[in-house]
């Protein structure tokens, strides 16, 4: 079990990006952290294996505070998969997978057996792939090797940070399915970060929706769908299911004509600029009917309403669906 007790993280003094988090992740659970970018998901994840030190509170794994573990032992026993998997390009698939087993001094036979078993379980033929250099693999294949590498030394816990977000839709859904199957079979605890609500609903035993470093709601996909706790959750359910490209900004909403120019020169209160992300716009419009947009000289240039955002997102969905059909 992974237990967060009153955990806070400040990178800068006085500015908590994760605040007073209480969280219990059960053994064998597929636990998804979701939320808009900047909500503190990655920070929360990386505190578990001490890649990021926490500022306040405790994280316990099997009752023992993580600070009491030997760091090497902690890292070896927690698998880790990133979005852009960092495989060693000049090493073979097998060498990449057995980095940690090697350090743990497994025998050659044990390692070979493990590689065979795991490659097969993610749909990569062991004989074809084990001796290939990873630089020769496609993005989807590399990500599969990354998942296998995280599982290689048989850790109880695996942390995954947007592991499938760089993949094309077909590789993504195949790998999602394989990982879900594998997790149930091996009974691992997976903590999984995403900003894609569809992915969260499809994979999670429980989902934790974060916003500004705090938890908005934790529950099973059914609980969240049937009883969203507040407007933020309701709104995220509607809009967060669209896998927005990270680099999309408000500029694109303006360019789509979903914008009302305003002539006022001065407006007090909350505003965004065209260079802000669409994620930021979604968060702002969860609580407001419209958002003021300012230009370079802090002058008001117009506003975007909730309806205009929804129209923009609906257009995005149809574009995405068309590209999937093709
Ligand atoms: P998410 O994973 O939800 O996108 P993060 O945990 O990456 O969110 O970031 C939460 C907040 O902490 C963001 O505002 C981000 O800019 C800030 N942050 C993340 N890493 C650092 C860092 N190393 N130094 C300072 N601020 C950081």
UniProtKB/TrEMBL annotation:
Domain ABC transporter: 2-237
GO molecular function, one term: ATP hydrolysis activity
A Pfam short name: ABC_tran
EC number, UniProt record: 7.6.2.9
InterPro entries in the record: AAA+_ATPase, ABC_transporter-like_ATP-bd, ABC_transporter-like_CS, P-loop_NTPase
Keywords: ATP-binding, Nucleotide-binding, Transport
SMART domains: AAA (SM00382)
Gene3D superfamilies: P-loop containing nucleotide triphosphate hydrolases
Keyword Nucleus: no
UniProt cross-references to SUPFAM superfamilies, sorted A to Z: P-loop containing nucleoside triphosphate hydrolases
Record family assignment: Belongs to the ABC transporter superfamily.
Name used for this protein in its record: ABC-type quaternary amine transporter
